[in-house]
Amino acid sequence: MTENTKQVDKEKLAEELLQVYETKNPIQFLSNEYQLSTVQAYEVQEEFVEQRTKQTGFITKGHKISMTSPATQALFGAKEPAYGTLFEDTLHTGDTKIELSSMMAPLLEPEIVFVLKEDLSIGAEEDEILEKSILSAGLEVPDSRFVDWFPKFQLMDLICDNGVTGKVIVSDKGRDDLTLAEVEKIKLTLKLDGKEISTGFASGVMGNPVTSVAWLTRKLADKNLFLKKGMAISSGTFITPIPLGKGVYEADFSLLGKVKLHVS
User: Fold this and answer.
1) With 43 labelled, which of 16, 49, 124, 264 sits at a CA distance of 20 to 30 A?
2) Over 84-116, what HEC string results?
3) pLDDT grade, residue 6 (50/70/90)?
């Protein structure tokens, strides 16, 4: 059943998504019942973020960017990427251990994480972003509040569910001296228990991950918002997402170094 979009209760939808954290019982896609515009979906996400902050006390610490490849956008009928919000308890620094049972249906995505040394201006472009950021090796672990979610969700589901934010692991080391051309050429090698399982290049992220962050600054500028000092931005995956299983994952980014995730 499709409801009139003007009658959508964003507080109710956000509350339903938040309850999954407590019940550990994923819900059906919201798109099964509603048809929300992108603007309305982000309004639900904003309500989700506000309610989660009030419930947990964990403040927002940045953003994650999804659907940064043309192929992924085409899969979900999107014309641009989408973003979600990161919280204090979302971010983990350095080699990290997590239990698979603590999540629902997680994936793994190697990404460059930008950590801001200074506030960015509204709508900041690539040169400013590079100048004010530390770039670090990262691993994103997307997870969703929906049943059997990947790759069956609709764009509005992903946005409402805070961009399917799970966890982001960022190396405690990074660089702030790379050029745009150098960033574009960064190569990823992903290993599981010492065996190479995938490779990718930064150019697969909107041509350059810095461009991905610039897209985010423009989206936030529409709301008169900007990225602030200390925020972390997970800029988009180098590879097709893979299901997360048990083992030791190591992402090695040329020019940036490595980061490990131990999953038990």
Assistant:
1) 124
2) EEEECCCEEECCEEECHHHCCCCEEEEEEEEEE
3) very low
